[in-house]
Here is the input.
Amino acid sequence: MFLEKVMERNPKLLDAAIKLHQEGILDPDTYILDVPSLLENAKLVLDEAKKHGLNCLYMSKQIGRNAEIAELLEDMGYDGAVAVDYREALHLAAHGLKLWNVGHLVQTPKSVLERLIPYGVRYFTIYSIDKLQEIDEIAKRHDIHQSIMVKVADDSCLIYDGQQGGFNLDELECVVEAAKKLSHIQIEGVTSFPCMLYNEKSKKIEKTANFDLLLKAKERLESLGCAIKEVNTPSSNTYASMKLAADNHATTVEPGHALTGTTPYHAFHSDGEVPTLLYLTEISHMVNGTSYAYGGGYYRRSNLKNALVVHRDGVRERALIHGPSIDSIDYTLKIDGVHPVSATVLCSFRTQIFTTRSHVALIDPRGEEPVLLGVFDAHGYKL
Here is the structure.
């Protein structure tokens, strides 16, 4: 999906990946992140967000919950992390990082609330009254007044399978009535997902029905007596969408794929964030005229299509690459044609590294020789 853009806009990353693999420094099934370029992307988004008066969070799951990068982002001026599931929140908390919003896609289990509420979380997102009551109970025990963000959704919204959850407008009065009976929580924010998406026909990032519902929910909650400070608008939060978010009364954005230049916008445009991510593997074997490379990093929504195969003698070939069927494990990836065993294979596609079993290599490709900064597992633990 992004291989052409890497070749066009970040060829040093490509050359560095080939060198590090063919010298035996990096194994197959490794995501490679160009850290200096990622930080430049992060600064570009942060500056644009602040220009429009937006809080700017970072999302780490796409890059494997990497706390070293997270620390650099906070040093740069990012307001904190969004952790859409509780394991990410716990990992970032273990490294002393700022948790701004926890629980957007996966509500926080009670056992984890017991640890995170004392640690300090700016907002917990909820989409059940039961969870609201649990948070209040634990916050009261620790004498903490906890801010809450309410997730909204209805039949007009786009909801990805596995992410169902959210109050519709008619349910908000019941939520507020329940909140009024609780002493240690206050509803101060509203969110939904996805609020913006890239439209391939218009070639623009546009707001979704979720965004429209979000604004109606803010008005409804305010009419019910809530002081709403936070209008959180995740998805397609790139340099190119900051003005759109601000013009539609968002307060907070949370770039994730923008940090690596791998949103759908970046597949069709050559401005803004530079692609900083490659997936490295190698040819394992051939069967009936088809080559197979080591898997482990395949993501079902990746739109994986193109690969660059690099022979040990330097010959470079373009080839089509295919993931396994939906009911199969990605032990290998199929590549059209016959290619030498152990040849380097490079791809760049939309991923969620935390869902894989890959390694993650942080590199600086800019010098005469690429520098390996560290290797991590897919959940951010240093190897």
